Amino acid sequence: MALSPLDIHNKEFNHRMRGLDEDQVNDFLAQIIKDYSASLKKNEEMEKELKELQDKNKYFNDLKDALNQSIIVAQEAADKVKKNADDEAALIQSKAEKTSQDMLTSATEKANQIVKDASDKAKNITVQTEDLKRQTRVFRQRLQVMLESQLEVVKSPEWKELLASTTESAEYLDPAQEKTPESAAEVDKQPVDSVHSEAAEDTDGDTRYTEIVFPTDEPEDTTSSAAPADSASAASDASEAPQE
């Protein structure tokens, strides 16, 4: 059991011969009592402070544990949220990639179809153009042959005889319009274009029709002695030419 200041104060010593000075011993004991009392008081204060510190330490330890637990829970929640966000982002990215790939495939197919349609249309137009050119060349050749054939017919002796007989009939019907051989020769010498112009002017008063005669697909050689009946047959054959 620890001594108290009161125990030190009440302590009595036995007297012996040649003993110590009682006053000095008492003074020393008084000093010890004072110092010991101060030490005890300070010790109590320190114990009290230690208890307070221990309580604070316990509080902070509990708070630390709670904070650690909160941090752990928050970390777990953050990890879960992050995982969910990553999964959702991956799903959205996958859907976006699939949608973009589908759109790209559809656009590519449409573009290819448009290019194919345009190419087919261009080829068709080219074929039609070439066919039209071919038909135009055939028509030009037939028209040229027809015009040359008609020109040969116009220059034939039959036409000259017909014109001569027509002139004689006109002179017989109207002596006032008698023509000299020189005027008849001038009529024969007139160019075909002037004759056509005069014929066009004459049609102002009367209604006339011009029939274009086309040769057949395999035109025969037309001689200067062709009869008007041959021109009629050529006209019937040419009526079918534009339909080819």
TrEMBL record:
Superkingdom of origin organism: Bacteria
GO biological process: one example: cell division
> Which keywords has UniProt assigned to this entry?
Cell cycle, Cell division, Coiled coil, Cytoplasm
Listed InterPro entries:
DivIVA_domain, DivIVA_fam
Q: Which residue ranges are recorded for the region named Disordered?
A: 170-244
The answer, when asked if Cell division is one of the entry's keywords, is yes
Biased composition annotated in UniProt, kind: Basic and acidic residues: 176-209
Coiled-coil regions listed: 29-63
- The main location is cytoplasm
Q: Does the keyword Cytoplasm apply?
A: yes
Gene3D superfamilies the UniProt entry points to: 6.10.250.660
- Bias (Low complexity) ranges: 222-244
Q: Which NCBIfam families match?
A: DivI1A_domain
The entry's protein name is Cell-division initiation protein, DivIVA
